[in-house]
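Subject: design request, 327 residues
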């Protein structure tokens, strides 16, 4: 027997509880993983609370991330003892995820854990950190360079934001962090931000084009925030947009695109092809300072994640929360 969080639905109402499962309860996939850690991402908060319809089939073991060790594999690509990580691929939506001491997954979803990381560090990174890396890769691909001027990061104290700042800082960028928690300025500067601005300055309706301030941005907010970010991007600049912490709408103007040659580039983590995931994890191993990573981490036990899930939706969680499924 082992422990897992199981979400169920009855009469249209979702409930979540810790249950004892056996291997026979697990889905029919080729690789059995002994899970060490999972994480709490914004999407996990939505799934656990039912605030958004993330889970599309019940019963569901939520948790969009997991890291652990292969116990059994019916696929030649993996063998017992391999250290592995899974991010996304519909975990917690259509497939059972990481809030379990054991999980069966498809061999195609696994990434070999880079030697640089323990399973704990892999989950300190988690989907948020891997997505931050995808955003950095996108900015690089579209011509954003360390000496090209400031890069703005929104949702700066959150998971994606904190790790985006750490990565961009290691790469030599000048970083402006936009946060609702200006009291966290010291933390954001420790991560590598050179300037911290109040996200309220980006929250209200502004002009379609404003002063050119940033050569690029990683945006975790969406909505009016993203529109104001686009309005302040320098000629030819790029925004990697990945989140909707402010909102999922985009109430903006065409002017930054057609008059300033600005690129708005969407970044998805869930369905990225394996080669891109591999590249992102290899670059994380190179470009993420482990001591900065550790300063972002709060560790909780499996049962505790149920209590703190609402906090991530109300912006009370700083940095990365990792879930020790064996505690
Ligand atoms: P977190 O909750 O850790 O961080 C989100 C941060 O956004 C908060 O900490 C807060 O930072 C900021 N924020 C909250 N409310 C608002 C608001 N009204 N306006 C502007 N900023 C706000 O979440 P994650 O970092 O895990 O994820 C960030 C976003 O990215 C989420 O929307 C998530 O769903 C999305 N995401 C998307 C992925 C994809 O595949 N496309 C993958 C991973 C995440 P502060 O207090 O500093 O302002």
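Subject: RE: design request

Done. Sequence follows.
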């Amino acid at each position: 027997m082992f422990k897992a969080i199981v979400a169920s639905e009855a009469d249209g109402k979702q409930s979540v509880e810790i249950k004892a499962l056996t291997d026979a309860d697990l889905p029919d996939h080729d690789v059995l993983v002994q899970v060490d850690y999972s994480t709490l991402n914004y999407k996990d908060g939505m799934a656990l609370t039912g605030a958004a319809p993330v889970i599309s089939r019940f019963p569901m073991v939520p948790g969009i991330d997991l890291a652990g060790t292969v116990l059994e594999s019916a696929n030649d690509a993996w063998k017992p003892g391999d250290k592995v990580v899974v991010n996304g691929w519909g975990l917690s939506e259509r497939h059972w995820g990481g809030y379990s001491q054991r999980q069966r997954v498809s061999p195609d979803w696994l990434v070999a854990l880079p030697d640089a990381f323990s399973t704990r560090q892999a989950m300190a990174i988690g989907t948020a950190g891997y997505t931050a890396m995808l955003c950095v890769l996108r900015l690089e691909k579209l011509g954003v360079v360390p000496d090209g001027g400031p890069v703005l990061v929104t949702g700066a104290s959150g998971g994606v934001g904190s790790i985006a700042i750490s990565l961009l800082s290691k790469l030599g960028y000048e970083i402006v962090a936009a946060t609702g928690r200006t009291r966290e300025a010291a933390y954001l500067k420790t991560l590598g931000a050179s300037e911290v601005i109040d996200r309220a300055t980006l929250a209200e309706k502004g002009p379609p084009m404003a002063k050119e301030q940033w050569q690029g941005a990683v945006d975790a907010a969406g909505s009016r925030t993203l529109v104001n970010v686009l309005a302040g991007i320098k000629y030819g600049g790029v925004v990697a947009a990945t989140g909707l912490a402010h909102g999922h709408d985009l109430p903006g103007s065409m002017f930054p695109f057609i008059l300033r040659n600005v690129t708005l580039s969407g970044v998805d983590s869930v369905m990225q092809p394996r080669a891109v995931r591999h590249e992102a994890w290899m670059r994380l191993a190179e470009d993420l300072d482990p001591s900065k990573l550790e300063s972002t981490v709060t560790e909780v036990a499996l049962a505790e994640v149920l209590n703190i899930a609402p906090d991530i939706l109300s912006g009370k969680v700083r940095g990365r929360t990792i879930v020790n499924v064996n505690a």
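Residues 41-43, 127-128, 131, 154-161, 179-181, 199, 220-221, 225, 242-246, 267-270, 312, 315, 317 surround NDP (CB under 6 Å).
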